[in-house]
Design goal:
Blueprint: H1 6-27, H2 31-98, H3 105-122, H4 129-132, H5 136-145, E1 153-157, E2 171-178, E3 185-192, E4 195-198, E5 204-205, H6 207-216, E6 222-228, E7 241-248, E8 251-260, E9 269-274, H7 300-314, E10 319-326, E11 329-336, H8 348-370, H9 407-410
Helix pairs in contact: 1-2, 3-8
């Protein structure tokens, strides 16, 4: 009924009174009063209609608010379920990392980085295997001493001002000795007397532009600088396959095989992780695109053998040994202590498998150290390569000492 509010009751009463008065005026033959009553009735009718419309609008608004409240309630319940799921995941991960019957590669490498940072503060790289790894020329000297192929170094310069590309072959790779990733690696082909194109890419530079780019990289491209042989891929592709072996003191944890579509463009990289026999692990790397169609090189057994030898000789529980599959055999790229800065994520089962590899490698290394193995990297006797220019800096790799051993005991 309409009479549910004081306003509606008042309007209803007014309509009844005016209607009664109007009928009476008509019966008493009072036309002017009757006309006034009719006008009043029409006015009151309009007010009644407007009031009803206002009530209906308020009712509809209330219904909408109720609906929004219900939607909001559903949204809150959904968010609550999401938070409960996240909390359960965090609790599971915490329990897993606290459980001594499980292990984690991610946890191990993060702790490893903390230790390396502490070693930096000691300022004694002579006695730290981890602090010697970032130096590319040192890696070449090390690998050559163990009979592993290395690129020919054409020229080494102590600083950027000394670099002169004029006497180099038509193709070469320009690098810095220290730096992360491939930001300071330029595979180049001479286009004319003072212009160079990036092989496998689109960029072109003059010599002065290249040197300016090196300067702009700052600490990401540290001296000395060198030019080395451009390796030819076994399948004659523009760039050889870069096979990255995750090594745990003489044992293979996993091998990353990949194809680079364009040098310097990470979006063109395709990859997959395999075991020592080349069996695909599947999409185990979180946030990275897995490509099962990538072919494993036929030389994988030789690559694994070289990586095992070098990882035992380096004297660390973990490192990544990067090797190239080239037209002249297996050639070292570099040795890395913390791939991607230690920021790689793997699915839980895979992370645990690699974590146990790290634990067992640490135990084997500890046993060898207690059995007489010299601490840190040990050099072999296959070659005595010396690539660094003389330096007065006691922290320069040119002044790092060398422990040379017979590989039959500690490296093979």
């Amino acid at each position: 009924m309409l009479g549910t509010t004081r306003r509606q009751r008042a309007l209803t009463g007014a309509v009844l009174i005016v209607a009664t008065g109007t009928v009476t005026a008509v019966l008493l033959d009072l036309p002017q009063i009757g006309l006034a009553g009719i006008i009043a009735l029409v006015t009151l009718g309009v007010l009644v209609v407007l009031n009803i419309r206002a009530r209906l609008k308020a009712l509809a608004s209330g219904v909408r608010r109720a609906g929004r409240g219900e939607d909001s309630s559903r949204s809150l319940r959904q968010r609550l379920r999401e938070l409960e799921g996240e909390l359960a995941s965090v609790q599971h991960e915490r329990d897993r990392l606290d459980d001594l019957t499980s292990a984690s590669f991610r946890q191990s490498i993060r702790q490893y980085i903390r230790v390396v940072r502490a070693e930096h503060k000691l300022k004694d790289p002579h006695r730290s295997a981890a602090l010697q790894l970032p130096h590319k020329l040192r890696n070449l000297e090390f690998a050559a001493s163990h009979g592993v192929g290395v690129p020919t170094a054409y020229q080494v310069w102590p600083d950027i001002a000394s670099i002169d590309l004029g006497a180099l072959p038509e193709t070469f790779v320009l690098k810095s000795d220290g730096g992360a990733g491939s930001v300071a690696v330029f595979p180049l082909q001479r286009l004319d007397d003072d212009r160079y194109g990036v092989i496998g890419g689109k960029a072109e530079y003059t010599e002065s532009e290249l040197l300016g780019h090196l300067r702009s990289l700052g600490r990401r491209a540290r001296a000395p600088y060198f030019a080395e042989e451009l390796l030819v891929a076994a399948d004659r592709a523009p760039l050889p396959d870069d096979v990255k072996c995750y090594m745990f003191y003489g044992e293979v944890g996993q091998i990353l095989v990949r194809k680079v579509g364009e040098h310097g463009d990470p979006s063109t990289i395709r990859l997959k992780f395999v075991n020592e026999q080349g069996k695909d692990y599947g999409p185990v790397a979180v946030g990275r695109t897995h490509d099962e169609t990538i072919q494993v090189p036929n030389s994988l057994p030789e690559i694994s053998t070289a990586a095992k030898h070098l990882s035992r000789a380096i004297g660390l529980p973990f490192c990544r040994v990067d090797l190239y599959n080239t037209s002249r055999g297996i050639v070292l790229g570099e040795i890395t202590r913390a791939p991607s800065g230690g920021n790689e994520y793997f699915v839980e089962d895979h992370d645990e498998m690699l974590g146990w590899q790290w634990v067992r490698a640490s135990a084997r290394l500890e046993v060898d150290l207690n059995s007489g193995r010299p601490a840190g990297p040990v050099f072999g006797t296959a070659a005595d390569l010396r690539l660094y220019p003389p330096s007065d800096d006691p922290l320069s790799p040119a002044n790092f000492g060398r422990t040379t051993v017979d590989c039959t005991q500690w490296c093979e």
